[in-house]
Specification:
Strand content of chain A: 25-35%
Number of helices of chain A: 14
Organism (chains A, B): Rhodococcus gannanensis
Function (chains A, B): Catalyzes the conversion of L-aspartate-beta-semialdehyde (L-Asa) to L-homoserine (L-Hse), the third step in the biosynthesis of threonine and methionine from aspartate.
Radius of gyration of chain A: 24 Å
CATH superfamily of the largest domain in chain A: Dihydrodipicolinate Reductase, domain 2
Largest sheet of chain A: 12 strands, mixed
Domain ACT (chains A, B): 356-432
Oligomer: homodimer
Keywords (chains A, B): Amino-acid biosynthesis, Methionine biosynthesis, NADP, Oxidoreductase, Sodium, Threonine biosynthesis
EC number (chains A, B): 1.1.1.3
């Protein structure tokens, strides 16, 4: 047994939005942090790409040599907030391999390499914490891995990407179209210069992989997550959603799928979806995040708050830092990876959901019944049909009961061949209805 | 260093709503629990008051001798779900004093004796977990003690009593008065035969003490919590609240109060309060619970779910059981009591809040200005006044800006002496407005 640490040496990798806030909190709240940990946190160094200009921290702390910083014998705990994958992966592995605790906010990395990182942590009995990787300041990882450790989670559904939620909320509110709203989000700092990772759902998919892994005790990587982004959502979709008592949200959904023979699989998927206005996720607007968890005994829980931003994300990082540092002082270790269930991934084609189909049709008698017949033909049961507009603006808006992706795709293909269906303009799922 | 446990022996004290669900989960989910813990959970015995009839568990597990059960050398972990104070206190102390881990859902006990229990746990390096004591299945204790361990919590405000929330929601919805609604709640199983602990705010005050203790790293007991119940709320209050764009909720509020000279104190208080309809707590209805946490870096977080009931509460208990059992297997210990800040309690008289005052007045000219003058006289600034009804039904509904309890009490006393004020029928606080 090693001696308990008298001080905890910390290395911070990265001094961007989150890194600067982490450093600020460590310096400003030193007395409180020491009382909570039982030993002082001492900042050993901050790895940056370039040392230039005033970064608001003593220049002596800055280094461009992250490898050497991580390797310092007086560093006990490494905070990784660089982003990217290969560089942080190597640094984190180096830290874990020498028994140092690691706190990271890097969802893209975790969604690919949690297994590898967790094995390194296991070998050296080191801590690997990542509360900040999903939903910023909102405690989600800890509730799932600890508070619900004695329960059986059946579903996790969340709004975990602030950029897309800002865009969809704004489109819903203003009636503006996607590209104008994206441009506005960029001007306001809610969307990056290259918004692909957000608007195409890659960020939400990485978070879905992390959530599915911990909720179902199964390794799920980003590649296992079915993914659709929001770039094809039109103002017409928002309008149609409103007429159906819904709004549109980009959801990250992780679900336990139980076959008739009892076999369990995991479905992890990200797509824009209609959500009924009375569902708790419907009123999560702007850059806010929320995660709804459904567990066998706990029932439905919801966690809500700021999902991004320097200070909120740093709050989550610092919670992990205090826990990892306490373990260094008191002995013991935080929760390990739990992947014993090793469930298979259910392909998206087999997941039944409700659908909304919006199509432009010829304005003549019999169209509705012919379209309805086509749905019936493919075994897709219709819940409601709404006929709107007239002449060349005539539209049919169909909401189905639960159907598989496969059955729906075949229906849509068949509808496209009907001469009185000018175009199937949108197909979106509908989630969160009781039906 | 002791050997890691090959099995974890569990004693359950109490076989009521929560206890039976705990026992059910331990028996039904044995394989999953073993995988998550790293060793099987073995139920050593269940302490009950009387062994009679079919309790749905093997009779051999039942015992009326709780002391001997706790003392058994093959019991590593004690789950206390008896309720009451003196009996569980002695049993929990006996368990902790012999180094056993304890999981309890007993808010009344914790609100009085956390200090004593935590010291016993500390001495023997034992775990004391109590996630289920506040807000049932909703993770609140763990987020506050762990996720926010690196942040600075400024306020916790919650709806943490299902009975009173059911009654207030029903009064708001139906317009019925308090006593009829309480009777209905009793018939539906939402209120106990003696509802005092719930409707007079004792239960909510115990939870406020626990929340304040962990949020502010200070020992706060039930006696430190200012408390008003809901039994004086009338249908007229709900109606007036509605006309002001509010509803009425029983809130448990814990707040960091900072004086001008920087001195910090803690305010913990429970009272029915007007809450604006656009506040997230306003839409928490029926038997649901929710807790809003405001922290310096995290911003505003909200946790929502089922705050009571056998299975939801057992979910929280079992999360603690798995964590405590893991610590027995892996070494290490969960979070300890943190009371280093030792802040003083701020008396309710010094806490400024907004107020709603409803009074019956004579229907004649000049009343409004005379009443307004009386508020001004005592330094209480008025936000809005609404005059309703006429003749003997004439009323004034005043909403103030922030004022101290002391200033408001003096104002109300003075109003009572005015000959054209027939009666001051209600005085309630208003919380959660941005003003």
């Amino acid at each position: 047994m090693t001696e308990p640490n008298a001080v905890i040496g910390v290395a911070v990798l990265g001094l961007g939005n989150v890194g600067s806030e982490v450093v600020r909190i460590i310096r400003e709240n030193a007395a409180d942090l020491e009382s909570r940990i039982g030993a002082p946190l001492v900042l050993r160094g901050i790895a940056v790409r370039r040392i230039d200009g005033d970064r608001g921290v003593p220049e002596g702390l800055l280094t461009t040599d992250a490898d050497s910083l991580v390797a310092r014998p007086d560093v006990d705990l490494v905070v990784e907030v660089i982003g990217g994958i290969e560089v942080p992966r190597k640094l984190i592995l180096a830290a874990l391999n020498s028994g140092k605790s690691v706190v990271t906010a890097n969802k893209a990395l975790l969604a690919e390499y949690t297994g590898e990182l967790a094995e390194a942590a296991e070998k050296e009995n080191a801590d690997l914490y990542f509360e900040a990787a999903v939903a910023g300041a909102i405690p989600v990882i800890r509730p799932l891995t600890q508070s619900l450790a004695g329960d059986r989670v059946n579903k996790v559904a969340g709004i975990v990407n602030g950029t897309t939620n800002f865009i969809l909320s704004a489109m819903d509110e203003t009636g503006a179209d996607y590209s104008d709203t994206l441009a506005e989000a960029g001007r306001l700092g809610y969307a990056e210069a290259d918004p692909t990772a957000d608007v195409e759902g890659f960020d939400a998919a990485a978070k879905a992989a992390i959530l599915a892994s911990i909720a179902f005790h199964t390794r799920v990587t980003a590649g296992d997550v079915y993914r659709e982004g929001i770039s094809k959502i039109t103002s017409g979709d928002l309008e149609a959603a409103k007429s159906l008592g819904c709004t549109v949200k980009l959801l990250s959904i992780c679900e336990r799928v139980v076959a008739e023979d009892g076999t369990e699989r995991v479905s992890a998927r990200v797509y824009p979806s209609l959500v009924p206005l009375d569902h708790p996720l419907a009123s999560v607007n702007g850059a806010f995040n929320a995660v709804v968890v459904e567990a066998e005994n706990a029932g439905r829980l919801m966690f809500y708050g700021q999902g991004a931003g320097g200070a909120p994300t740093a709050s989550a990082v610092m919670g992990d830092v205090v826990m990892a540092a306490r373990n260094k002082v008191n002995g013991g270790r935080g929760p390990r990876e739990s992947s014993y269930a090793a469930l298979a991934i259910a392909p998206i084609g087999e997941i039944p959901t409700r659908y909304y189909v919006n199509m432009q049709v010829a304005d003549r008698a019999g169209v509705l019944s012919a379209v309805a017949a086509e749905f019936a033909e493919h075994g897709v049961s219709i819940s409601t049909v709404r006929q709107e507009g007239e002449g060349s603006g005539a539209r049919l808006i169909v909401v189905t009961h639960r159907a598989t992706d496969a059955a729906l795709s075949e229906t849509v293909a068949a509808l496209g061949k009907l001469d009185f269906v000018t175009a199937v303009t949108s197909v979106l799922r509908l989630e969160g209805s009781s039906e």
